[in-house]
Design goal:
Elements (H helix, E strand, L loop, with lengths): L9 H12 L2 H13 L3 H29 L3 H8 L6 H33 L8 H13 L1 H20 L2 H28 L4 H9 L8 H13 L7 H6 L8 H29 L10 H10 L5 H32 L6 H20 L9 E2 L2 E2 H28 L2 H9 L6 H26 L2 H9 L1
Helix pairs in contact: 1-8, 1-12, 1-14, 2-10, 2-12, 3-4, 3-9, 3-10, 3-12, 3-16, 3-18, 4-5, 5-7, 5-14, 5-15, 5-16, 6-13, 7-8, 7-14, 7-15, 8-12, 8-14, 9-12, 10-18, 12-13, 13-14, 14-15, 15-16, 16-18
Main location: membrane
InterPro entries: Na/ntran_symport, SNS_sf, YocR/YhdH-like
Protein name: Transporter
Length: 455
């Protein structure tokens, strides 16, 4: 049988895991959610939730992944044999499969925009014209399907090469490049007239703009932006040696994720304020507002291409992990038949993603419970499967693995003491599940009913 794979270096693991976390959540979703939810106040609440709730769950996934040294499904079978907990791993694999089916659609949009920007097709348009162009692009069935296919082909080729030669090697190139490009964009954005208004919007909390809905958005974003609840981090940590410092690695990933969210805000909001555009544009902020910002700068199209490249890198590093969790489950963490399974899974994801890809074109009128296929899959994964998975993992770690076993695993490669352990365990066992339940009830519309009933 093939030998189990492992990360080649500590840095490689951290960059790959950070790449999984730093995807559309940090670069696409965070800016538009912050723009519609209070700016600086939202960022502060998001930061606190990430540290107090996201970090403990991330450490929890790392602990059970490395302890089992197995794929996402086998992990739960090993640590809780003869129980139904392995369903948690299956939900994670299924969730990642569904996520990538619509995630790859957005990846395709990025590629299409890169092509248009590189050929000069995005020069000199007004914001309204950029909005119209975005509508035309996503409604074209041929180009969007080709874009989705190209995005998936890149993902498949990298993952098929394995952990060290594929995911780790690509992450070591893409993640540093992403940070460098972001710093260049932030410097350029901050040099604009009126840029400080955008900085103030992002960094100076104004709690009069915060609502209970904004707080719940920040809570959901804290989990979504770290790829938690789908056992991706369980899978990645299963390739770790016992010498890796899990708490420190998790903290590095959380800090990198928060830093990217901050850089995304600093790259976007100063320009939006400088040119008097709408800060609360919503999901189309990246595709219709940003081009209008960049093309009004000297050499702006060059900076916009740089932004699209880093956006593509972030999307790809997340996509690697989504296919890897399924490949790992089939290969049992070895290289045996890896290429075959990667191509099969990638092909199936493309087929399942076709309705999502066509949701803004020929299938725009096909709706289920008033949602397009794209929106329905997004809602099902982001608002139902991921919270359920996160809740299950937090309960599993704190009830199915002994406290002695957890402490032992944490202290391998780390010098954490009992104080850290007790705080981490308390947050994961009590605080995190309550927070996840609140978000889940709000999503289902039950929270408002419960509050009104209590009143």
């Amino acid at each position: 049988m093939s030998q189990q794979e492992q990360w080649k270096s500590k840095l490689g693991f951290i960059l790959a895991a950070a790449g999984s976390a730093i995807g559309l959540g940090a670069i696409w979703k965070f800016p538009y959610v912050a723009g519609t939810s209070g700016g600086g106040a939202f960022f502060l609440v998001f930061l606190l939730f990430t540290l107090l709730l996201g970090y403990p769950l991330l450490v929890g996934e790392f602990v059970i992944g490395r302890r089992s040294q197995s794929d996402a499904i086998t992990t739960y079978k090993k640590l809780a044999p003869n129980t139904l907990w392995h369903i948690t791993g299956k939900i994670g694999v299924f969730s990642c499969f569904l996520v990538l089916s619509f995630y790859s659609v957005i990846g395709g949009w990025i590629i299409l925009y890169l092509i248009k920007a590189s050929t000069g097709s995005l020069n000199g348009l007004s914001q309204a014209e950029y909005g119209q162009l975005f509508g035309i692009i996503i409604a074209d069935p041929v180009s969007t399907l080709l874009g989705q296919l190209v995005f998936l082909l890149i993902t498949i080729i990298v993952v098929a090469k394995g952990i060290q030669q594929g995911i780790e090697k690509a992450s070591k190139i893409m993640m540093p490049a992403l940070f460098i490009l972001f710093i260049i964009l932030v410097i350029r954005s901050l040099s604009l007239n009126g840029a400080m208004e955008g900085v103030k919007f992002l960094l100076v909390p104004d709690f009069t703009e915060m609502t209970s809905e904004s707080i719940l958005f920040a809570l959901g974003q804290a989990f979504f932006s770290l790829s938690l609840g789908v056992s991706v981090m369980v899978t990645y940590s299963s390739y770790l040696p016992k010498t890796q410092d899990l708490p420190k690695s998790a903290l590095s990933i959380v800090i990198m994720n928060l830093l990217i969210a901050l850089l995304a805000g600093l790259a976007i909001f100063p320009g939006v304020f400088s040119f008097g555009l709408e800060v609360d544009a919503g999901p189309v902020l990246i595709f219709s507002v940003l081009p209008a910002v960049f093309t009004q700068m000297p050499f702006g199209i060059v900076f916009f291409i740089a932004f699209l490249v880093l956006f593509l890198f972030a999307a790809l590093t997340s996509a690697f992990s989504m296919i890897e969790i399924a490949v790992s489950a089939l290969t049992k963490n070895t290289n045996e038949n890896r290429k075959k399974y990667t191509w099969i899974i990638g092909g199936l994801i493309f087929i399942v993603g076709i309705p999502s890809c066509l949701s803004y074109g020929v299938m725009a009128d096909f709706k289920i419970v008033d949602k397009t296929f794209f929106d329905l899959v997004d809602f099902a994964v982001s608002n139902v499967l991921m919270p359920l998975g996160a809740l299950a993992i937090s309960i599993f770690v704190t009830t199915k693995v002994s406290k002695t076993g957890l402490l032992e695993e944490l202290q391998q490669g780390s010098k954490v003491g009992k104080v850290f352990f007790n705080i981490w365990f308390y947050l994961l066992k009590y605080v995190t599940p309550i927070a996840i339940t609140v978000v889940f009830l709000d999503v289902l519309g039950a929270l408002e009913w419960i509050v009104s009933f209590i009143k």
